[in-house]
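Dear colleague,

Following up on Tuesday's group meeting, I ran the structure prediction for the two-component complex that the binding team flagged. I've pasted the input sequences exactly as they went in, so you can double-check that nothing got truncated or mislabelled along the way. The structure tokens for the whole assembly follow below. Feel free to forward this to whoever is handling the docking comparison.

Inputs:
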Amino acid sequence: MIRLENINKTYFGAQPLHVLKGIDLHIGEGEMVSIMGASGSGKSTLLNILGILDNYDSGDYRLNGKLVKNLTENQAADMRNQLIGFIFQSFNLIPFKTAMENVALPLYYQNVGRKKRNQLALEYLERFGLKEWADHYPNQLSGGQKQRVSMARALVTQPKIILADEPTGALDSKTSAEVMQILREVHQTGITMVIVTHERGIALRTDKIIHLKDGIIENIETNDPDSIDFSKEIK
Amino acid sequence: MFDFDGIHEIWQTITRNKTRSLLTAFGVFWGIFLLVVLSSTGNGFEKGLMMQVEGVTPNTAFFFTGETSEPYKGYQKGRSWSMQLADLEAIKETFPCVKAISPEASVWSSEDKNVIYGSRSASFSVKGVMPEYNEIEKSKIIRGRFINDTDISANRKVCLLGKKVYETMFERGEDPLSKMVKVNGIYFQVVGVIRSYTENVNINGSIDESVILPYTTMQQVYALGDKIRFFAMAADDDTPIPDIEEDIKQLIKQRHDIAPTDNEAIEAFNLTEMFKAFKGLFFGIHVLIWIVGLGTLMSGIIGVSNIMLVTVKERTREIGVRRAIGAKPKDIIGQVLSESLLLTTLAGLVGLCIGVGIMAIVGMITSNMPSDNMMFQDPYMSFKAAVWATIIVIFSGLLAGVLPAWRAIQIKAIDAIREE
């Protein structure tokens, strides 16, 4: 599903910063992986490249068999819209839109009709137990609810991949566990999932943990979440 | 971009900050409102003034004789001379563009109470003209007819009464036709009553306060002989009088042995220059109005543009999120442009409607004020100007959105969602 070959990325600022120094990575269809690393290790940059939000200097990135290189803004927008669902740390819901309208927004950019859009959005909200909250605005929702709305938004277009950037970063541990449980359930429907986190407890709920350090992959740890008892606090 | 969904999307963002949107829209509203009100007022004054000069043919000139100021062909300077009817015939023959020409002789009331009818008497001036005169200085025939060719050829003792003359000499409603009125000691039969279209423009005395005689009758009765000291003429619209005025003067000078360079022997004034001055004045007023109106509108547009820039800046994160979930640059441009377009168009149309509405009320009030001398009539904007105003509003709405839209597409999804 995702194939990276020798990806390099340098930020040219006052001091050129070589962030990614040759990343080779393969994530198969239906895998649930996490990317861990200290701040500055390049994990967010990697996620941005995976999400076609940022470009890379050299190497090849194939997404769903298609080479992602030198895309126009429109091509990139189409690929993001059709293949990728984003989940952000700070939810990034649009404050003047209701939960339902937020979920329906990606469909608007697919030119789905208003009625169909809202109906689909309601279905996804129901799936995350938020049907009653469909007409609420983001500031009327709790952190966990907001993250569930944003998950509904990420999934409503039926993407192949979910990219989550610190999805639990703004949540308490109990809510984090709930969110991870939902992500796990979503993953079981066959969606490829990449989660960037710096919490080991979160990473342990994925099948593969990619450790990033100073722009290179340090090691890839295979993990079996089913063997871990999450009722205990993990630090 | 203009489907219902799009409008809903835009409306949602505009109404999000109602106060700010209202204040922004007010600038555009005020610009258009001012443009409508000023332009309508300008039209009102123009119409009012034009009504005052209605009946006066603009392409008209008046010629009158004076003493010669240069010796020529053996004549001394300071010679007193006059024209003849044959001169006028010659002018008509030489200049086919002259459509009406008439001598005019005037006798101001030399004695007290020169006009007598029954027991009433009063003082009025007496004028003698040709039938064509009515094509030069048009007057309204209230009763009877104007002087005709038979009156001229038969030297009939008939007269026309100006409106004031009729009102003074006759009972209200009394039929004056065929009555005999004594003017300077001689009886004339009344054939008509006329009034001038306007009271403010008079040539050689007000028609309303004159008794009009056939020119030939006047010549005979007052023993004027074939001596013309004053004549009026009108040319067709394709030939501006100033173009032929000098040629006419030269023709007359040549026929009377007057030096071609003599500027005092015959003089003329024409209404074309006056009308030109009017036209120029109103053109200037209209230009000024549009400059002021468009200037105000422009500051409104800049206000919209400015606020949209702020809005785009504020919505960096939102725009970034939209980009991340699949909005294309054209979606973002479309949204920003549509927002400014909708805001300015709505504000502009409201301004247009309120302006037109207010001027309609003003127009109704002024038209109900009974006055012959109204200098203000029908203060309405022309339909063409209204269409132009609408086009300008729509166009400027788009223009106002260009810079903010350009700023908006500079926002990269990654910049917007990056954690601070």
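The CA atoms of residues 6 and 22 of chain A lie 4 Å apart.

Cheers,
M.
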